[in-house]
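Here is the promised in-class demo. Please do not try to memorize the tokens; focus on the logic of going from shape to residues.
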């Protein structure tokens, strides 16, 4: 077998070993196989099987299926031990593959726990979504009832009198009802919605709709249908309406969670970049460094707030005494406060602007923002507070 093909196959087996629990030692239950010094117990085998997709598990049901699955586990273990004995656990390609899988798994686990696990959808957003999308939570009225079908009104009234007199409705239905579909069930009919019909019992949609005007437990007067006369006792009844918030809260939270998680992720990402001092040497991709005017224009023409922060920060770093430096430093604070909502970072940026550029014409605006951040929009007529006529 070519070495490259074998490496790919062994890398795949190592990937599977990372995703599935190991077979060697530590398990409990009857030993069902041995491979060298490694034992495979029945509990370990069933645990491996449980990690497969449900439709795949069905292929290995019963004793014969488990034996077939065990053969596959043994095959993996034999190849794993042979590969390790041959030194492939130290092969650079295999090591690189395992490291890449470990890296992705760690990132996924971090995101699931530290990002998604830390996000709580605000109650006011849940309520707002519920109010604005009430049409998604409509619940159709449902009715569940028992009935006794008789050929004549007199027969239906006789049955009613027996029930009113204290006899069990179900027992009378089993004895007298002409409806073969419900008689053995004591006259019980499966739940129906408004607009449904029950042709087998002669009940039209209008007949069923009229029952929604009754009350639970009430024994009706004889009612005429296409197949005779009925007496009915309503067991359960609910009218059309909107499901209560508590009933649909989980669905709403689930629908809002991705956007909330994304917003929180971007916030955490910026914090981590700052904490770990992540930098980009964009000049490595350009023949000539960008000028102050070029950076300022890029910042003004870019909609994404994080990219604008990057341009303004680069301008201040590269041209601290430049024509636009004070304005750029002010905009760093403005974007952090008004567009990202990070008031701590905004405060630091604005104080730095006041300390570094005390004579700037934007000094009063920076002082105002420091006093009023998070309370109301800054007093600028244009969306860009630094624009000039």
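The designed amino acids, position by position:
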């Amino acid at each position: 077998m070519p070495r490259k093909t074998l490496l790919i196959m062994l890398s795949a087996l190592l990937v599977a070993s990372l995703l599935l629990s190991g077979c060697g030692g530590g398990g409990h239950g009857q030993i069902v196989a041995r491979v060298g010094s490694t034992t495979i117990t029945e509990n370990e085998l069933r645990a491996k099987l449980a990690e497969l997709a449900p439709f795949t598990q069905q292929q290995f049901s019963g004793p014969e299926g488990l034996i077939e699955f065990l053969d596959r586990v043994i095959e993996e273990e034999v190849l794993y031990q042979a590969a390790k004995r041959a030194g492939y656990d130290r092969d650079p390609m295999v090591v690189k593959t395992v490291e890449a899988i470990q890296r992705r798994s760690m990132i996924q686990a971090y995101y699931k726990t530290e990002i998604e696990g830390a996000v709580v959808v605000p109650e006011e957003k849940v309520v707002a979504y519920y109010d604005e999308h009430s049409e998604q939570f409509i619940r159709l009225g449902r009715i569940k009832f028992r009935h006794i079908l008789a050929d004549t009104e007199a027969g239906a009234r006789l049955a009613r009198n027996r029930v009113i007199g204290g006899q069990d409705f179900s027992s009378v239905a089993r004895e007298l009802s002409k409806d073969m579909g419900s008689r053995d069930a004591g006259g019980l009919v499966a739940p129906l919605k408004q607009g449904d019909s029950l042709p087998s019992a002669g009940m039209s949609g209008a007949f069923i709709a009229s029952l929604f005007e009754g009350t639970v437990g009430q024994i009706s007067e004889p009612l005429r249908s296409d197949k005779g006369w009925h007496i009915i006792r309503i067991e359960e009844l609910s009218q059309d309406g909107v499901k209560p918030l508590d009933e649909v809260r989980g669905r709403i939270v689930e629908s809002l969670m991705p956007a909330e998680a994304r917003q929180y992720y971007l916030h955490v990402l910026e914090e981590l970049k700052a904490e770990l001092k992540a930098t980009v040497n964009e000049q490595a991709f350009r023949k000539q460094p960008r000028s102050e005017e070029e950076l300022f224009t890029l910042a003004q023409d870019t909609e994404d707030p994080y990219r604008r922060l990057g341009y303004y920060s680069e301008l201040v770093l590269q041209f601290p005494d430049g024509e636009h430096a004070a304005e750029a430093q002010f905009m760093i604070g403005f974007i952090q406060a008004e567009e990202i909502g990070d008031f701590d970072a905004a405060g630091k940026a604005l104080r730095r602007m006041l300390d570094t550029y005390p004579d700037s014409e934007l000094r009063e605006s920076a002082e105002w923002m420091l006093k009023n951040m998070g309370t109301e929009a800054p007093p600028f007529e244009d969306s860009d507070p630094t624009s000039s006529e």
